[in-house]
Batch of 2 targets.
Target 1
Amino acid sequence: MNMHGKPCRKALLILLLLVCLPLLAESAWDFSNSSIAVDEIMSGGPPRDGIPALTAPKSVSASKASFMRDDEQVLGVFLNGIAMAYPTRILSWHELVNDYFRDLPVLVSW
Amino acid sequence: MYSRQIKGKERFFGVSGLLYRSNLLMYDRGTESLWSQVKGEAVTGKLLGSELEVFPSTLTSWKKWRKQQPATRVLALDTGYSRDYSSDPYLDYYAQLSGFRSFFKLGPGEKEKELVVGVVVDGRAQAYPLALLRRQGEIRPELGDAKLRLHLDPQTDRLLVTDDDGSPLPHMLVYWFVWKGIHPETGRYLPD
C-alpha cells in the first residue's frame, strides 16, 4: 500500500539500490590470477552461497539418531579419535561442511 | 574430506555457484580464492596453487558404518536451515548413469556418472570402475611402472589403494565425467 506517494517510491528505489549493490559486488569474482581457462568457468545456476555451506553443525550420538535408516548412504569419517557420519541426504542440500574433529578444522565436500 | 588448516591458518569455505568443466568451485571466505572441489587446489586468487590435505573417508550405508564405529556421531537434522531432509534430492540423479551434459564426448562403453576410483601415479591418471571392484573385490593393475592393488572390503565398503610397497596412494571415488574433467588425459581401466 502506498500512503506517501512519490517520496515513498524514491525511498524504495534507494532501498533497492542499497540491497542490490552489495549483491552485485559480491557476485564479482577476481579471475586475474588464475591457473584454469577462465572461459571454461560457468555459472552453475544458484548464486554465490545460494547453496549454503554448513559451519560447525550439531551432531547427535548414534543411539539418539532415530531418524537414520539402516540402508541410507553416509560419508563416514574417523579422524582424531572421533567417528562421524554425514548422511548424504543432508550433504546434498549444502555441499560443504566446515567442521571440527576436536581442534582439527576439516572440510567435508559433497 | 580435506583439512581447512592452510599454511598455518584456518579457512572457511562456501559454495561459489560457479562450475569449471562441470566441477564445483568453492571459495574461501578470507581471500575469496576459488578452489576446485575435486582437485583440492586453489585455482584463482591469493591462495592460487595451494593444496588441501586429504583425509580418508568412506562412502557406505548407515548400518555398515555404525557396525564398525559404534561410538559414531551423526550430523543432526537441525542444521539451522529449513530444508526437506526427508530424502536425498539427488536420488534420481545418482540412479541415472547418464543425463549429465558433459563437456567431452563419451567413448564406447562410457557413462558420465559411472562411479570410478581415480588414481594418479607419476603424473599418469587412470580411472577404475567401482562396479568392477565390487564384482572382483580386488584388482591388481599396472599404471606406468607401478603395480597397484585396489581393494574394496564388502563388510565396510572401505577402499584401499596401495603401490608395490604396500604404501597407501591418494585416490578418490568420483563420477567419470568429474574425473575426466580434471584429468582430460585419463584412461579408463578395462580388464583384459
Target 2
Amino acid sequence: MTDQMTAVPTDLGSGAGVADPDPDADGLLLDGVVKTYGGARPALDVPRLHVPAGSFTVLVGPSGCGKSTALRVSSGLETPTRGRVLLGGVDVTSTPAAGRGVAMVFQDFALYPHMTVEQNVGFGLRLEARHRPRRGLRGGAGPLNKAEIRRRVTGACELLGLGGLLERRPAQLSGGERQRVGLARAIVRRPRVLLLDEPLSALDAQLRQQARAELVRLHRELGNTVVMVTHDQLEALAMGTHLIVMNGGRVAQAGPPTDVYHRPADPFVATFVGSPPMNIAPMATTDAGRTFDAPGRRVRLDHPVPGLGASGSSTVLLGWRPGDGVIGGPAEADRPSAPGLAVEATADVVEFAGDAVVVHLTGDGMRAAVTVPARGSWPAVGDRVTVTVPAERLHLFDPADGRRLPAVGA
Amino acid sequence: MTADTEVASRAAGRRAGGRGTAPHRPGGPAPRARSWLYLGPATISLAVWVYGPLVFTGVLSFLHWNLVSDHPSWAGLGNYARLVDQPEFPHAAWHTLLYAVGILPFATVVPMALAIMLWKKPGAVSTGYRALLFLPVVLAPVANAIAWQFILDPLQGAANGLLQDAGFGPRNWLGDPATALPVIVLITAAKVVGLNLLLFGAALASLDRRTLEAARLEGATEWETTRFVVVPQLRRTAVLLGLLSLVVVWPWIFTNVAVLTQGGPNGATDNVYYRLYTYAFTFFDAGTASAAAIVISLAFAVLLGAYAVLGRRRADPGPGSGPAGSGPGPAGARPERGRSHASV
C-alpha cells in the first residue's frame, strides 16, 4: 500500500490547463490572493504565498492572522476575492474543491458521526465511483469497484494503525484514533496536497507529541505536499521543512525553520517564533552605530551598523535570544570584553524546566529572559548578574518599519 | 390522601427504626420523613390528576353509568364487548389509523425538508420564513378551525372561489366523505409542520457544519451531502418526532373535527377520540367511553413500549465495549451499514 501512496498522481493538473514554465510555481501558490469577509481589513492579503512541492509547510501565526483562510482558499472551500490559486503551475482558482486533488483534515476532524470508520474513510471513493462508474481511478489503477475501494480503505487504515477499528463509530473512538481516521480519510484519495487545519490541537499534550512524529513520518512515506496550519510555533519549528509565518493577513516571513529562527525578518517574527520569546528593546547610538547605550545595557561593535545613518535614525531595536545569553558575575560588566552586548540586571524569577533553567531578569526599566543549561549553576532570585551576548548573535531592527538591519557580526 | 400520608409515614418510621442508625437532626423530622415531605406535593398531584383518574376510568369501564345516576350497575366486560360488536368503534379506529398515516409525513419528511432548506441558507429571510411557518402553532385552535370553516364554505368560501377562478368546479370539501378526512389532515398538518420544523431546526443546530465541508471536499454534490451526511444524522430525531407527533396531534385533530364536521359526513372524519367524546357527552354512556379510553391508552402503551425496545437495541455501545464485529454490540448498526453501502 505504501508504495502506491507514494506515487503522486499528476494527470489531474496536466489536463486542466497550460503548465506554467516558472519552476518556482511548482507546488501550491497563492498569487496575489486577497480574501475579504466584508470587514474593512482583508482576512488574507498575500502577494505571493508559495508552498514548495513535496514540502511539509507549516503556516503559523497568532489567531486571526489569516492562516486558516489561506488554507481554506487553497482547498477551494473559499473563493478568493482577488488573485489566483495555482496547483502544480495550473490555475485552479475556479476549480471546485473536489476537483483540485487536495484533501483536508479538519481541526476537530469532522468525521461523519453516523458512519463507521470504514465508511468514513471510503465515503469519498464511493462518491467517486458513483459519479464516474465506468472510468478508472485517478492514477490508473484499474476500475473503482467495491473490491478496489475496500482494498484502498483497508490499506489506508492499516497504514495508520486503524486495522482493528473498521467497524467502530466515531463516538466509540479516542481522540487520537479520530485524528487518524481523519488522516486516513484524507490520504485514501491520494491527494497531491494534504491540508491539515490544526490537526493536533484537539489532542491532549502527551498524544500530541506522538502524533507530531507520526505526521512527519507519514509525510516522508507518502511524499506528497503537506500544508499544516498551527498557532503553536514550537510545533511549527519541530515539524515543518518550510515555515510561513503570518501576521495580520500577510506573510511575515517564509523559509526553512532554521532561517526563520536565526534570521527573523522583523520583531514580530522574532518574538513569535522561539520560546521564551526573543528579548527586544530599543537602544540609542551615540557614535553612528558603533556603540549603543541604555540604562544597564551597553553594546559595543567592531564595525558600525551599515545603513543606520542613512535612515536618519539613531535608535535601533536590539534583540537577542534567551539561549544566546551567557550569565556571569556582576564584576564582568566593567571588564572590557569581546564585541557584543552586556546587560546588568537582577534575577527576578527562576523557572526550572528540566534540561534548562529560564531566568527572568529585571533591570532599569527593562525585562529580559535568559536560558541556561540546568547542568551548570544558575543564579538565585535577587542575585545581580551580568549577561553577555556575542555580537554575531544580536539582531537589529529598524524601529521605524521593523525591517531587519544587516547582520551585526558579519 | 390521608391514607397516602399515613402509609408514607408508617413506611418511613419502619425503615428508620429498622436501621436504628438513621441520623436524626434535632428539631427536624426524621430524614426519611423529610424526603417524603419533599416528594409529597408532586406525588399527591400525580395521584390526584393522573393515576387516580386512570384507576377511576379503569373501574368505570366495567360499569354502566350515565354520569349522574347514584347507582351505577356492574357491566363486566360488556362495555368492551360493545366497542367490538358495534361498527362505530372499529370504524373510528380504522379512520384513526388513516389520520395517523396521513399526518406522519407532515410530522417527519415535510418539516425535515423545510428545516434543511432553511438551515442551508441562514439569514433574515430564513428566520422570517421560520416564524411564518411556526405561526399556525400559536393560533387559537377553535378560532383557527372557524377561520377554515369560512374558507372552505361550499358556497361563499375563498377556497372554492379561487378554484373556480382557476377553472375547477366547486366542491363541498367538508361535506364530501372523500375529501373531508384529507382536508382535516391538511389543516392540522399546518400546526404539526410548524412545530416540528422548529424541533428539526434545533437538531440541525447541533450538527457539525464541517462534516458538510468535508463531504464537499470529497466531491459530494449538494444533494449527496444532504442525502448521505445531513439526513442520516437527523434519523433519530425524525423517528422520535414522528412518534411524539402521533401522541400529541389528537387534541388538534379533535378540535378541527368538533368544529368543522362533528365526525361526519357519514363517519368519514370520525376517530377514536371523537368517538370517546360522543359516547361520554352525547350518549352519557360513561362505561363505554371509559372502555374506549382504556383501549386507547393500552394501544399507546404498546406503541411507546415498542419504540423504547427498538431504541435500546439501536443504541450504540459505549467506547469501552470490545471491537465491533466480535461482540454482540451494535446489532442495530449492521443493517444501517448495509444500507449506506448500497446507496453510495
